[in-house]
Description:
The chain is α+β, with helices and mostly antiparallel strands. The protein has helices at 2-6, 28-41, 86-103, 128-137, 210-246; strands spanning 11-20, 47-50, 55-58, 66-72, 75-81, 111-122, 159-164, 170-177, 193-201. Mean pLDDT is 90; it is low at 182-188.
Amino acid sequence: MSDSYRALCSDFYINQKIAVKLDLPRSRESGLELFERVRREFGSMSSFRRYKDELALESAQNETPHRWLALRTNSVRSGVVNPTTDEDAFGLHRRLLEVAPYYLSISPLDIDYVELLFGFDLEAAGSHDRIVAEALYADTPLGGLIDGSVGTAIDCQPLIGLTVDEGSEIEAHFEVKTRSGAKRTPERRDEPISVYLTMRHYQPVTSLDDLQSRFDTLALRGLEIVDERVVESLLLPLRQAIASRSS
């Protein structure tokens, strides 16, 4: 899985978000005990940090895969960057679904939704917005707005959402994120173009035991959509547009 995706981008990552309706406990014990539980299983996650809006536990930046866990007021978030196996990609997320509700007193009624994000970063020089416009909108009706005769693309970040499978409570959101700041600094090269597929499950949770099967559904359908849609419709056109500008 990972090797084929890494051939298409500079970095590949899978992030999870468990969103809750009520504020999570802010006591020292609850967060630290969860972090210690995770650290015992994922030994490289030994860097504990406090930011303005979150507490975070992560591995070293040069660790492969790089893992992180963050607690915010209304969510438990986790991520794995450049996983090399399926276990690397999903193991941390599965464990958090199992243990986080008990350490943080999360009940089934409290869970708003569970989300998996499949992210791809592509290094690109020049104006990201022009690259995206060229790759995804050329020779389309919408592309007529940004073909250069009227002006230059300065904000081209498509976002499309859809319902997955008839009658399901799963949503898929496709997003392309540009960061070159073309309005003022079109030649910034320090940040990539990012492609996101966000899979989100809104169906009410009746039991904490349901979370694992819900995760399996999001992971399976997400990988299918990446292979069937994201690669062909987003990643390959963007790579070609980037290559044509650098050649």
